[in-house]
Amino acid sequence: MMVRMASGAWFHEEVDAGAPRRKTTDARWQALVSESRTMRAIDALGPRPTDEVRLPTAPESAARARRVAVSVMRLWGLEIQADIAELLVSELVGNVVRHTGVRTFGLNLDRRRGRVRVEVRDASRSLPCLIDAGADAESGRGLYLVDALADRWGVELLPRGKSVWFELDVNPEPLAVA
């Protein structure tokens, strides 16, 4: 299923191909631009193709990116993973704000069978580094948290920048009981 956020972004979720779909027009989407209406827009207007939320590279954009990620995770019924996604999105957005020098960045969430992939895309081609920050260091732990909490993560170079992504398993295998 494709879900469009009120900000104009599209999110993808796999669903049964035979499921009924609601029709809508782009004009109706444009009328719902307020963040506070995001969930109502998704419920009212239904699925659309995937795209990303574009945000300015500013410290306050981290809060908006977190809200978008949590809203989408809850929409998908993934409340347990929403807290982890919120923290990791904040770390990736913080890296863009602190280290890239670009004007805007994109946030994209994609649900696939058994996992959710979250991407933060920017126009910088400088790659993030996983470092071992000291115990008293005030920064340098962002990717360490991503590495520790995400099931998978990585960086993809794009023709105009990069995508730093992480994946969370949403249907983990049951533990074997001995």
Protein model, in words:
This protein is of the alpha+beta class and 178 residues long. It has one domain: Histidine kinase-like ATPase, C-terminal domain (Heat Shock Protein 90, 2-Layer Sandwich), CATH 3.30.565.10. Helix content is 33%, strand content 25%. It has helices spanning 26-31, 38-45, 61-75, 79-99, 142-149, and strands at 2-4, 10-13, 53-56, 104-112, 115-122, 152-158, 161-169. Strands 1, 2, 3, 4, 5, 6 and 7 form a seven-stranded mixed β-sheet that branches. Strand 1 and strand 2 (10-13) form a beta hairpin. Helix 3 runs antiparallel to helix 4 and helix 4 runs antiparallel to helix 5 (142-149). Residues 11-25, 27-36 and 41-49 have low confidence and may be disordered.
State the gist of this model:
Helix content is 33%, strand content 25%. It is of the alpha+beta class.
Helix/strand-derived category reads alpha+beta
Indicate the radius of gyration in whole angstroms: 17 Å
SSE order in H/E notation? EEHHEHHEEHEE
- Indicate how many domains the architecture comprises: 1
Beginning-to-end CA distance, first to last residue: 39 Å
Look at the structure and name the CATH superfamily. Answer: Histidine kinase-like ATPase, C-terminal domain
What structural keywords apply?
single chain, Heat Shock Protein 90, 7-stranded mixed beta sheet, 5 helices, 7 strands, 33% helix
